Model the fold of this input.
Amino acid sequence: MIQIVLVEPKTGGNIGAIARAMANFNFKNLVLVRPQCDPFDEECLKRAKHAVGVLDKMKVVDSLDDLEADYLIGTTSALGTDYNIPRSPIRPDQLAGTITKLREKEDVKIAIVLGREGDGLTNHEILLCDFIVTIPTFPEYPVMNISHAATIIFYELFKQTADEKIDDHILFATDTEKKRLLELVDRLLQTIEFSTDEKRETQRKVWKRLIGKSFLTKREAMALIGFIKKLV
Done:
């Protein structure tokens, strides 16, 4: 089980936005630590849109010590020199791999801890965490909105564990089909008058590279093969 934990959220809008992002990527367990606002105010419900199911299950606790979690994963925008952390931060994509390994154990409970808007987590809170994740950003403006940062993390975790990949239902052209297409292009080029053989060969190389590096679907390849057959 993965819990998403917000420490002392100040605005209902961010709570709602994070709840919506959680629903987008199939996270269901939201925990607030000492919320500094009404977690069910109008702005929260407005930003949550249709993710009210996440809000209905939401829990409120007094401290990180009250979390029922085997592993705490903290988040930070940057590690300053004053942090006393005995480990380096990892990126969201690396976190996804780490969580996959952790979840190989039965009934493991993981909490992803998002810090305060503007202030983040304290040094003490970071030291309580087993892992620290940070999102690389432009150095001149590194601090992200908490809901935006959360969405990136949720996406990376979902991408790693989603049962259905986006391209699972797409059939791509095989090497044999690409070879057949290139053979037809060769035949077509032989029917076209070029000022020199070098220019014909240049065209052939261009088509070979184009076909070779493109992600042609089987349907697209068959359409091109059928079209060129009519020309030759």
In short: Residues 2-161 form a domain with the Alpha/beta knot fold (CATH 3.40.1280.10). Strands lie at 2-7, 29-33, 59-61, 71-75, 110-114, 131-133. The chain has a mean pLDDT of 88.
